[in-house]
Amino acid sequence: MALFFERPESGETAILVHIDLNSESEPEDPREFEELVIAAGGDPVEFIVGSRKSPSAKFFIGTGKLDEVKTQVSEHRAGLVIFNHNLSPSQERNLESELKCRVLDRTGLILDIFAQRARTHEGKLQVELAQLQHLSSRLVRGWTHLERQKGGIGMRGPGETQLESDRRMVRDRIKSIEKRLEKVRKQRDQGRRSRRRSDTPTVSLVGYTNAGKSTLFNAITNADVFAADQLFATLDPTMRRVSLHDLGSVIFADTVGFISHLPHRLVDAFRATLEEASSADLLLHIIDASSEDRSTNISRVNDVLKEINAFHLPTLLVYNKIDLMDGSSSRIERDSDGNPVAVWVSALTGEGLDLVRSALVEKLPNKLLHVHLKLTPSHGALRATLYRHNAVIKEVIDNEGQIEIEIKLPESELFRILKISGLKFEDLVTIS
Q1: What gap in Å lies between CA 51 and CA 72, rounded to an integer?
Q2: Residue-wise burial string across 166-184, b where 16 or more C-beta atoms lie within 10 A, e elsewhere
Q3: What is the maximum span of the chain, computed from C-alpha positions, in angstroms?
Q4: Are 315 and 247 found together in one domain?
Q5: Per-residue model confidence (pLDDT) at position 227
Q6: Bridge partners, residue 249, by sequence
Q7: Does a structural domain hold residue 166?
């Protein structure tokens, strides 16, 4: 079924259609729509807008607007018309029949971007599952000549058999992918249980797409995750273990960017990935501080967090991209009890990253031990491990090679290291 990853060449000439509906409580954003089309590799040559009380059952748009779209398709020789709305399978078929070109709805557009961005085996499986589920309701496309074949003697044809064969193939493929993703979920669950047992806190970065999550993730963890100024630059979850001073080991997880009205099929398909956010000890909600839609995007992210049962988790807001704002500087905002609630930073320039680390130390649960250990030259491996965890504050070596080392480390982390080393805390500690 590799055909689902044969994406069209970029630069496709596209006509965009956005209709304001009175029946919509929260309309789609036309600017975001255009960004999505560009992110998919489309070349928008015309943006047709209009308004209606409610969608037309047959074409979604009225016949007058349909003629306008038809004229623009002809003038620009466009091969694609994209709607900033979700179309029913019949509306899609009817529009294609009238416009004589491909028609794509909002869900299909987002699926296309996800298909282009998926890099890992898991990510590709998740996208293909969402694509197949979307496609399964549209499998009558290309078989409209069968409408008259309702069954009965003399009315059964090879086309109908082929259509059923296609449907069965899609159903089988969906089941196969779901089984494989279930295996991935179990593996992730085991990983999360292992992290909980080791008391290693997990921080998940969430936020509206293109808020700068990956840039911040790279800056904090010194990783090299792909980061670009485009929607859905990161699709696959990336995890890094980082040792923070005064905190010890912390696991950071970069997640897929959220978007308004993220299609349910994608939320379901990416549940294994999104569960990394719902099981975190702390969420870093990254916000593009320079965006005009800042408040709206925060609400949209919160809606997705509610959907994946992660809204209740402790959260630190990180207002990113202050380098794009005049007169804005890095700072920590605190509540009435003095707890950090927001940090203003620029992940690109590095301004304020030290404040993020400080706020993390305050927000994450930890029980730090500040102790002095007496080590001998035979404890070289333990000494190296403590340095690797950034736990060493000071050390003094006497003439006989005896080492008195001052460390600060989470209690659970120190006892885990000592257990691996086969050593006992009470045999080494001198001052606590």
Answers
A1: 18
A2: eeeebeebbeebeeebeee
A3: 102
A4: yes
A5: 44
A6: 243
A7: no
Among 373, 417, 418, 369, smallest CA distance to 395 is for 373
Determine, yes or no, domain membership for 173. no
Q: Which of 117, 132, 148 is the last residue in one of the domains?
A: 117
122-157 in b/e form (b: 16+ CB < 10 A) is bbbbbbbbbbbbbbeeeeeeeeeeeeeeeeeeeeee
Only one residue has tokens 């599952």, namely 129
Tell me what the mean pLDDT of segment 370-387 comes to.
88
> Which pLDDT score, from 0 to 100, does residue 391 have?
83
Q: Could you give the angle at which helices 121-136 and 106-117 cross, rounded to 10 degrees?
A: 160
Q: What CATH number corresponds to the domain at position 410? A: 3.30.70
Q: Do 342 and 391 belong together in one domain? A: no
d(CA 201, CA 44): 45
pLDDT tens per residue, range 290-344 = 988 899 889 888 888 887 778 888 899 999 999 999 888 899 999 998 889 999 9
Q: Which amino acid is residue 146, in one-letter code?
A: L
Structure tokens that stand for 397 in this block: 């070596």
259 with 233: CB under 8 angstroms?
A: no
Listed residue (237, 348, 238, 336) closest to 288, CA to CA: 348
Is the whole model's pTM more than 0.85, yes or no? no
pLDDT at 109 over 60: yes
pLDDT digits (tens, 9 = 90+) for 3-48: 343 433 434 889 999 998 887 666 777 888 888 888 788 888 999 9
Same domain, 280 and 304: yes
Q: Residue 189 contacts by C-beta under 8 Å, 6 or more apart in sequence? A: none
CA distance 257 to 228: 12
345 and 420 co-located in one domain: no
φ, ψ for residue 216, nearest 5 deg: -65, -45
Question: Distance between CA atoms of 150 and 161, rounded to whole angstroms?
Answer: 13
Does residue 70 share a domain with residue 92? yes
Domain endpoint, select from 117, 133, 154: 117
Question: What's the pLDDT score for residue 366?
Answer: 63
Contacts of 351 (CB under 8 A, 6+ apart): 322, 323, 329, 330, 345
Comparing 55-69, 327-341, 386-400, the range with the smallest average pLDDT is 386-400
